[in-house]
DNA sequence: CATAATGGCCGAATTAAATTCCGTATCAAT
DNA sequence: ATTGATACGGAATTTAATTCGGCCATTATG
């Protein structure tokens, strides 16, 4: 059984599919992870210990990665949000570039397909701090240019939702793909 | 005192600056909000009731917006992440466009400065579902074009961090701005 | 300058919740 | 049919959250 546990860790695959009750549990806990197991159980139709057991399993399997306090950026003096696209010479994922993840202003870092190599989501106190970060980027070998999209207003920002849209409204003029 | 409470709610301003202990508390709770007040207190140098009192205040003031379970996207069948830039004819923030926030695949929605009107962060099961969402966008009046950046790998993705970089490494060739 | 008033803290006590422990039912594989 | 494994519920136990009262420091007030 140790072997199986290791396997789960390595493959980073949930041990088993999340069933509808698991989805409900995730839905509830994404909204508010501070409720008691008694209340959670009531909302999904389980006894407190059963709900507890499910949650433990979801954490063990990695489906629940963490339980975090969601902070208001203004409360920590970070009112400015920006997405920074970075173009690099050659393959961009160098250790030097990765090092910017040490700055707490950098919240996300992805490689993307399209005309850019990397995409950053950064949150700073002001434009001065953003400029500081950009300057830091330009000092990084291989970085040729950046484009920054400064956020004016945020209308929606939420964690990963467990729900999935099963049917997209089919537009009239779309051919049916082969697969 | 009711008036003051209302004031806080309306202005969405923290009642008082977060002091260093508050920052520490936020730092701990962003990493793991499941610890006991006993442990939280120990880590920040307070008794359990004092820590509890601080956390209550942080929640009341809105500094802690929520406590959420962070879900592994793969566990809920959403392995595909993309950022979608939307160009619109005229002012983009129409009710029709805002309505896409009802889809659980849409995690973020911002208006941005730069050559785009809106920026979406979306997470879907596959390219088919992304296409479904894009088709839905093009069916929205005013949308003229979109550009999608599909994420290949995510190297960093974390909630708002309470820490702030106080000193950015000054690049050699940068003039000192007036203010 | 003295003194009330406030806010934040701690220790102890109380209440509530998490967690453990079994016994039981259900389903799958043999 | 029988065994094994899994998930569940109820009751008991342990642990944590929450309340309460008193103390100290800082700030406002006469």
What labels describe this entry?
transcription regulation (chains A, B); alpha+beta; Dimeric_a/b-barrel (chains A, B); transcription (chains A, B); homodimer; 6 helices; DNA-binding; disordered N terminus; DNA-binding (chains A, B); 33% helix; 179 residues; 4-stranded antiparallel β-sheet; Lrp/AsnC family transcriptional regulator (chains A, B)
Describe the structure.
2 copies of one chain form a homodimer. With 179 residues, chain A is α+β, with helices and mostly antiparallel strands. Chain A has helices at residues 2-11, 20-31, 37-44, 48-60, 95-98, 127-138, and strands at residues 64-71, 80-88, 106-113, 118-124, 143-157. Chain A has a 4-stranded antiparallel sheet with strand order 3-4-2-5. In chain A, strand 3 (106-113) and strand 4 (118-124) form a beta hairpin. In chain A, helix 3 crosses helix 4 (48-60). The longest helix of chain A has 13 residues, at 48-60. Chain A is extended and about 55 Å long. Chains A and B meet through helix 2, strand 1, strand 2, strand 3 and helix 6 of A and helix 2, strand 1, strand 2, strand 3 and helix 6 of B. Strand 5 (143-157) of chain A pairs antiparallel with strand 3 of chain B. Chain A binds a DNA duplex (30 and 30 nucleotides) through residues 36-38, 46-50, 52-54. Chains A, B: Residues 18-92 form the HTH asnC-type domain. Chains A, B: It comes from Mesorhizobium vachelliae. Chains A, B: It holds the Pfam family AsnC_trans_reg. Chains A, B: This is Lrp/AsnC family transcriptional regulator. Chains A, B: InterPro entries: ArsR-like_HTH, AsnC-type_HTH_dom, Dimeric_a/b-barrel, Tscrpt_reg_AsnC-like, Tscrpt_reg_AsnC/Lrp_C, Tscrpt_reg_HTH_AsnC-type_CS, WH-like_DNA-bd_sf, WH_DNA-bd_sf.
